[in-house]
Amino acid sequence: MVRVSTQLLEAHLITEGDWIAVTEICALCRLEPAAVLELGELGLVSARHSGDAWQVPAAALPRLRVAARLMRDLGVNVSGAVLAIELLERQRSLERRIHDLEALGGGH
Amino acid sequence: MEYRDYYKLLGLERSASAEQIKTAYRRLARKYHPDVSKEKNAEERFKEVQEAYEVLKDPEKRAAYDQLGSEWKSGQQFHPPPDWGSGFEFSGGPPPGGSRRRTYRAAPGESGAEDFSDFFASLFGGGSPFAGAGVGAHAARDHHARVDITLEEAFRGTTRTLELRRPAVASDGSLALETHTVRVTIPAGVTEGQLIRLQGQGSPGAAGAPAGDLYLEVHILPHALYQLDGRDVTLTFPVAPWEAALGASVNVPTLGGAVAMQIPANSQPGQKLRLRGRGLPGANPGDEYVQLKVVLPEASSPQARALYEQMRAQLNFDPRADFAR
Known about the structure:
heterodimer; A: alpha+beta; Multidrug-efflux Transporter Regulator, Chain: A, Domain 2; 4 helices; globular; B: alpha+beta; Helix Hairpins; HSP40/DNAj peptide-binding domain; 3 domains; 4-stranded mixed sheet; 3-stranded mixed sheet; 8 helices; 23% strand
């Protein structure tokens, strides 16, 4: 038997201004706390100590989630994930630049 | 449902060793991983590769899959044999047939067994909500899904309708799938990769424990006019040579509607002008960068040719003045 109901959900946007406890980051990214701290040590994210807990900015979530996926799916280690993300971001930046230059030279 | 040839998906012979399976998976995962791949249909291919690896890396699942025989071809209509599952025990799997298909897409690389095909689910259970129900323990679990929106939707905010299914106790005491449709409001100003939390929309917990949450990872689709970088957008804006040279007041499209902008005199092709706060909204709103593209009129009429001749004669202009002589 399948019952159907409709519900209006209230969405909570994890905003850029928020700081998130490392324990929550671990759940959101499926990462071990040690991996998050190591990613911080290697400069992928900045972490701060507040009260009894380490926190990272919510703005770092997309990078951390990509790092987690690369480590989980491709078997790369923390250093490899950081290197891959930095190179991917540089690649995207260059692609944007190429797009801008091509738009200048292309037809209208 | 259609049969899936997991060996063929990984490019392997049926006699492949565990090491060969792992190597093939790593190679294809690298090729199709949605976070790094530029391949067409990378996300779909990656899920197929993940599903094949999930079966072939596990000796129990592989042995059961091999038991189906080697006569099957990918795409062939398939139903599990009546005695399927006897002699095998899959950890965490429900009884055969307990399949579930989520109607929202998993985020790239976030696939769990519940995101695999009906073929997988019919054989191994595939993360059905009934998984583990027979043995009692069933922890609440967060779910992650991806939602694609346009740049305009990111600017203005939007709503998405998701169809979610989860187990519920029917009036006769049996478990049934309850489907409910939810409308989610995505607020204005979301950025690429940002997360939206929908509390209590993940897997239910056992014995009245709170359900997990559903996380939507926002992805903003490419736009025909604008390039997005964080909250900033860049627009390539064509101008006539006299507008760049003499300056002009023009109407420039922005995400919030056209605005008047003054092009300064002696502007050059590629120069970027900034419209502050005209990018994606937020606590620190993004800007719109207007990159000027000077478009030359063709010298296709006597009048146009005469004007170009006049410029050549009177402007004393050398575009290569900086070249070493």
